[in-house]
């Protein structure tokens, strides 16, 4: 598996995975992915050696230094590859980007997504609040989670 920039050519596959992974909610459309890429947000793709996209993740950084903050917009892994460490690799890639600009990171996660919550807790996130009926149209609740800004040392970035 390789991690690289998400490209406009990947968007169709992302939208397919969205429909498969989030059928009870409002899956992102191709237009939504194109808009995220056009806006300059940081998106990465996980691909097999043959080029098949099997996961993706996105991060937005907003504000002005020294008051930047980052938001994880999405992390998704194709069902056949879940549990194999791809989500962890995608999250770590996003966190490296946030750490480069010393930004705290925030996200929302379904309260019933035990695997994702455990992943975030293991990477320094904590539950900050609850957003009732956040996901639509299912009405599922979400936790807001956050991770403080990390200060990289020279050894960390090598």
Automatic annotation (TrEMBL):
Keywords: Transferase. It comes from Solihabitans fulvus. PANTHER family: FAMILY ACETYLTRANSFERASE, PUTATIVE-RELATED, N-ALPHA-ACETYLTRANSFERASE. Signal peptide: none annotated. One of its GO terms (molecular function) is N-acetyltransferase activity. InterPro entries: AcTrfase_RimI/Ard1, Acyl_CoA_acyltransferase, GNAT_dom, N-term/lysine_N-AcTrnsfr. Pfam families: Acetyltransf_1. It comes from the Bacteria. Residues 1-150 form the N-acetyltransferase domain. This is Ribosomal-protein-alanine N-acetyltransferase.
């Amino acid at each position: 598996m390789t991690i690289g920039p998400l490209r406009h050519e990947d968007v169709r596959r992302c939208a397919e995975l969205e429909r498969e992974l989030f059928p009870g909610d409002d899956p992102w459309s191709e237009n939504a992915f194109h808009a995220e890429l056009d806006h300059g947000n940081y998106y990465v793709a996980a691909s097999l050696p043959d080029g098949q996209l099997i996961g993706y993740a996105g991060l937005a950084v907003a504000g002005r230094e020294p008051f930047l903050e980052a938001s994880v917009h999405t992390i998704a892994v194709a069902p056949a590859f879940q549990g194999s460490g791809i989500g962890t690799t995608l999250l770590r890639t996003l966190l490296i980007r946030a750490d480069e600009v010393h930004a705290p990171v925030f996200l929302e996660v379904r309260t019933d997504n035990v695997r994702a919550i455990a992943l975030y807790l293991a990477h320094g996130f904590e539950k900050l609040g609850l957003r009732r009926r956040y996901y639509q149209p299912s009405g599922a609740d979400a936790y807001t989670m956050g991770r403080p800004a990390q200060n990289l040392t020279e050894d960390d970035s090598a």
